[in-house]
Design brief:
- This protein is 41% helix and 9% strand.
- The protein has seven helices and five strands, in the order H-H-H-H-H-E-E-E-E-H-E-H.
- It has a five-stranded mixed beta sheet.
- It is globular.
- The relative contact order is 0.14.
Length: 271
């Protein structure tokens, strides 16, 4: 299955390393001295301790994959976590772990061929994925403790791109994406604060798959409508929308077109 990737390409590798370091530090700062048993509203059935354990585990697991430069899907997920006995020590555990992770990533060749579940079969896939896993969960942590979250617009737009490019490949752990099929229906997502950078994505549903297509009318497939629904909003809000942290009927968005199509998309694109 070939999925066209528009509008472009990942950010420079160093930007992801900076994001992982910064977002982890902000996560740790948010949970320090907070109740580790507090419920996380955006992750049902999880506490802050669960969220922290998940993020630290993911970062360490991705590092294992990168260390081994795996060439096929791993058969087991054994990784030494070194979890602390006390939940109130999890922030320090997370911060210590990411220092080791970053030391590894700085010596990783981002273009090294390796297995990945998504579109880009290179080491940079896992580093880019780690950056957005960390960013979104940082927002989860901040919301849990009542902090206001801000997200860099350039990074957020790249996160929207990363999500949409890889979603068609996520069936092994997000089986509902198999229901994102159609007869040429298209949804257009536009960043209102990044228009000069061309941050627009058109996703078309087909009988056998779905994926990003060119957004310019002259490049649309012959006889097909360019879009059936449109969602416009700030890059940060669109990123949170992709991850289910906002809904398309929020005041953050301008929505037009077939809302039934949007409901179907967001019902089956949970990541």
């Amino acid at each position: 299955m070939t999925i066209a990737h528009f509008p472009g390409h990942p950010l420079p590798y160093d930007r992801y390393l900076e994001a992982i370091e910064r977002e982890t530090a902000r996560f740790a700062a948010a949970i320090t001295a907070e109740d580790p048993t507090a419920a996380v509203p955006t992750c049902p059935d999880w506490t802050l301790a669960d969220l922290t354990g998940h993020l630290g585990t993911v970062q360490r697991w991705f590092s294992v994959l990168l260390t081994r430069v795996v060439q096929e899907p791993p058969r087991e997920r054994t990784v030494e976590l070194g979890l602390p006995e006390r939940e109130d020590a999890l922030a320090e555990w997370l911060s210590t772990g990411v220092s080791e992770v970053l030391a590894l990533l700085r010596t990783t060749d981002p273009d090294a061929p390796m297995w990945a579940w998504g579109a880009d079969q290179r080491a940079r896939f896992w580093v880019r994925r780690m950056a957005f896993e960390t960013l979104v969960h940082r927002v989860d942590a901040e919301r849990t403790v009542g902090r206001t979250s801000d997200i860099d617009a350039t990074l957020a737009a790249d996160g929207v791109d990363e999500f949409l490019v890889n979603l068609p490949y996520a069936g092994s752990f997000a089986p509902d994406v198999a229901n994102l099929r159609g007869n040429g229906e298209a949804i257009r997502f536009e960043c209102t604060d990044r228009e000069s950078d061309g941050d627009t994505w058109v996703v078309r549903l087909r009988p056998d798959t779905f994926g990003i297509e060119p957004e310019r009318a002259e490049e649309a497939p012959s006889g097909q409508t360019l879009e059936h629904a449109k969602v416009r909003g700030r890059a940060a809000d669109l990123l949170l929308l992709m991850y289910g942290r906002l809904t398309y009927d929020s005041r953050a968005f301008e929505v037009s077109g077939d809302e039934r199509l949007l409901t179907r998309w967001f019902s089956h694109s949970a990541f």
